[in-house]
Amino acid sequence: MLRTALVGLISTGFLVGAAAPAHAAEEVVPIQRSWNHEGFFGTYDRSAAQRGFQVYREVCAGCHGLRFVAFRNLAALGFTEDEVSAIAAEYQIVDGPNDEGEMFERPGKPADHFPPPFANDEMGRFLNGGALPPDLSLITKARADGTNYIYSLLQGYEEPPPGVEGLEGLYYNAYFPNHWIAMPPPLFDDAVTYADGSSTSIDQMAADLAVFLSWTAEPTLEERKQTGLKVMLFLIILTGLFYATKRKIWADVH
After folding, report:
1. Are residues 238 and 130 part of one domain?
2. What is the pTM of this model?
3. Angle CA(222)–CA(51)–CA(174) in degrees, nearest 5?
């Protein structure tokens, strides 16, 4: 897996802030894009989410975990029971203790959560220049306009404007606060190969990953919207009944 994974969407920001010149933070507005899961009746684009999961596994998982996501949750994205079991079995899960009081590793099961990429936080910091790569489970909730933020950040790498001197070890990103970020560009064209033949441009992979991470942050979004719709319909009907009852009770009162 590529080591140029999504290092620093949260924690790296503090590192970059310490390294960047002190000045008033510039408000950065991410690219605004329409998403299927937005709006009152919005639902997740499951094809995009599955592709985003592939991008996560092949590009991001080497540095970032999904500790709040269980393998069995992937069934909600359209993966079959056999596919979920096969995906889980590709991971080694630390379990135990056994009868001898020792921890051991075993293949993952659907009920297991995604294991962390590092044995501990200290190892994560040591291998990433002092910055602990954040868990991505709730990343779109950790930023304002999170889905658009992730989508924009992943394709916001560019050369600094004329007259702006670069900072050693940092990269210029048009959509990162203060613009200087420690995370190397994680995506490049054709970084993955989609089984459905979809484009593997940076824009497409960034969009797919943003959808997947939006789902990990709020997997019950569709259920919440359906519940809200039912509540609204119930209140409308109840209001009508109350009004009809009121008219009947007060019909003879002038």
Report:
1. no
2. 0.82
3. 90
pLDDT digits (tens, 9 = 90+) for 228-241: 888 888 899 988 88
Which residues, including other chains, have CB under 8 Å from residue 241's CB and lie 6 or more apart? none
- CA 143-149-150 angle, 5° bins: 100
Judge if 136 and 58 occupy the same domain.
yes
**What ranges make up the beta strands (E) of 108-166?**
none
End-to-end CA gap in the chain: 80
Element (H, E) at 107: strand 104-107
Q: Is residue 184 exposed (0-12), middle (13-18) or buried (19+ Cβ within 10 Å)?
A: middle
226 and 206 in a single domain? The answer is no
Domains identified in the chain, total number: 2
- 18-28 pLDDT, tens digit per residue, is 334 444 456 78
Residue range(s) defining the domain that contains residue 190:
11-69+114-219
Q: Where are the alpha helices (DSSP H) in the chain?
A: 11-19, 46-55, 81-89, 121-127, 146-154, 202-217, 221-249
d(CA 56, CA 73): 15
